[in-house]
Amino acid sequence: LLRALRAEVSRGLDWQQTADRVAGALRVALPDPATLLSAALRRGDPACYQSHLLHAEPDGSFSAVAMVWLPGQETVIHDHVAWCVTAVLQGTEYEEIFAVEPDGSALRLAARNENPPGTVCGFAPPGDIHRVHNVGSGVAISMHVYGADISRLGTSIRREYTLPVR
């Protein structure tokens, strides 16, 4: 999988094209959560969803992270520093996508997606404002590939949004 991700990232395409190509590579090689994380890490943490760095490419061009979500856990509404590809490996993730109103006063709900296991999505700024949560009754696990070195940045989040949602 890493070889395939490297090949797609090294093409030097724009962010959306890279996200689309990485999504295609991930779609054909979805890993089993048990190969990515120990049983203890797959259980999650009641305090907050967990993010586990799996790989950071030495040149900083991409990182891979596994995220573990207990029922009810969610992100804040946010966007990203670079392109992102998500793959749901276990459970179902619910995603809400937002757009900033033209006058900048609020967010508008643009789409709702229910992402069951096997769902792979790629997106890139701008237009990547979203919130993800686990509305199911079991643990959800997803793999995220970011076009940035998360080991150096500490997060893929560029900005959190606190505007009202209309």
Number of strands: 10
Strand content: 35-45%
What characterizes the major β-sheet?
Answer: 5 strands, antiparallel
Structural class: alpha+beta
Shape: globular
Q: What's the pLDDT, averaged over the residues?
A: 96
- Quickly count the helices: 5
Low-confidence stretches: none
Helix content: 10-25%
Rounded to the nearest angstrom, the radius of gyration is 15 Å
Order of helices and strands: HHHHEEEEEEEEEHE
Give the spatial strand order of the biggest sheet.
Answer: 1-2-9-4-7
**End-to-end separation:** 40 Å
Give your account of this protein's structure.
- Helices cover 20% and strands 36% of the residues.
- The protein has helices at 2-9, 15-27, 33-36, 39-42, 150-153, and strands at residues 50-56, 63-69, 78-80, 84-90, 93-100, 107-115, 120-123, 130-133, 140-146, 157-160.
- It has a 5-stranded antiparallel β-sheet with strand order 1-2-9-4-7. A 3-stranded antiparallel β-sheet has the order 6-5-8, with no helix packed on it.
- A hairpin with a 6-residue loop joins strand 1 and strand 2.
- Helix 1 runs antiparallel to helix 2 (15-27).
For the structure shown, list the relevant keywords:
single chain; 166 residues; alpha+beta; five-stranded antiparallel beta sheet; three-stranded antiparallel beta sheet; globular
Helix and strand arrangement:
Blueprint: H1 2-9, H2 15-27, H3 33-36, H4 39-42, E1 50-56, E2 63-69, E3 78-80, E4 84-90, E5 93-100, E6 107-115, E7 120-123, E8 130-133, E9 140-146, H5 150-153, E10 157-160
Antiparallel strand pairs: 1-2, 2-9, 3-10, 4-7, 4-9, 5-6, 5-8
Helix pairs in contact: 1-2
